[in-house]
Amino acid sequence: MPIVSLDRLLKHASDNTYAVGAFVSMNIEIIQAAIRAAEKKNSPVVIRIHPDSRQITSFETLTTVAKQLASQSSVPVGLSLDHGETLGDTVDAIRAGCTSVMLDAAEEPLEENIRRVKQVVDAATPLGVLVEAAIGHMEHGAVQGEDDLANIEEAVRLVRETGATILAPAIGNVHGSAHGETKATPNLAIDRIRQLREATGIPICMHGGSGTPREQMRAATEAGVALVILFTDIITAYNTELKRVLDANRIGIAIIDALVPAQHAAQAVIEEKMDDLGSAGKASAFTEWARQTA
């Protein structure tokens, strides 16, 4: 089916108390793994594109692949930008077909965060694109303290003054080991999630989903998390299998013979995450709901 807008995906997830997994995809193999896992688990899925991917390709290359695979799939597939740092990042992603974009200015003072997010909202809203804003302090690999968590009053102000439609708060989650850090086990502040969801009235996106115990993940979805960003666990499985095959074939190997098992390893982990999120089995229900509410 065609790419599905995240407003529809998150509405259904919120109303039915599950979360959609957004899998950060730096290459075609992870995009394929995510969509194939979604088909096997009958789950909605989001392909999450990070600006770092432009070091080797373009947003358009990755989104074209995702759109082609989605068109051949029976499950709903969304496209979203991860951690845009500039207005230009978000504009490029919108042009490439993303139906939601993130402007991450969480480490800036609140006033600057508001200013930068509002710039993106003003550009994206007329195009029907959702905008994700971030708040709170979430250091890579580290456990958050109470002072790091998203402040409810500041979160309400960020949403109200910008018009952001998805909130990515620090809620006891732990950003992954993208920069070589050892990732601590998340300790989610479930009450804070619930308070933020109720106070802001918009879906909560949880970053750093890798390593989250299933019981915490389920509690988070019940409290208001509708979108979960996942990278570390998936890319670790992919890289481990890729390295195993390459190390066993030092003289020479057709790279496809290493990429195939690496992709399969990533897909297996993604399937497990869909069980954790409660999204497994929900694609058919989403499709029927979307048909009835079109």
Description:
It is a single chain. Helix content is 49%, strand content 13%. With 294 residues, the protein is an alpha/beta fold. It has a five-stranded parallel sheet. It has a three-stranded parallel sheet with strand order 4-5-6. It has one domain: Aldolase class I (TIM Barrel, Alpha-Beta Barrel), CATH 3.20.20. Strand 7, helix 8 and strand 8 form a beta-alpha-beta unit.
Brief digest:
With 294 residues, the chain is of the alpha/beta class.
Structural key phrases:
294 residues, TIM Barrel, five-stranded parallel β-sheet, three-stranded parallel β-sheet, 49% helix, globular
Decide which structural class fits the backbone: alpha/beta
Shape descriptor: globular
CATH superfamily membership, which one? Answer: Aldolase class I
Strand composition percent: 5-15%
Q: What's the CATH architecture?
A: Alpha-Beta Barrel
Protein name: Fructose-bisphosphate aldolase
InterPro entries: Aldolase_TIM, Class_II_FBP_aldolase, FBA_II
GO molecular function: aldehyde-lyase activity; zinc ion binding
Keywords: Calvin cycle, Metal-binding, Zinc
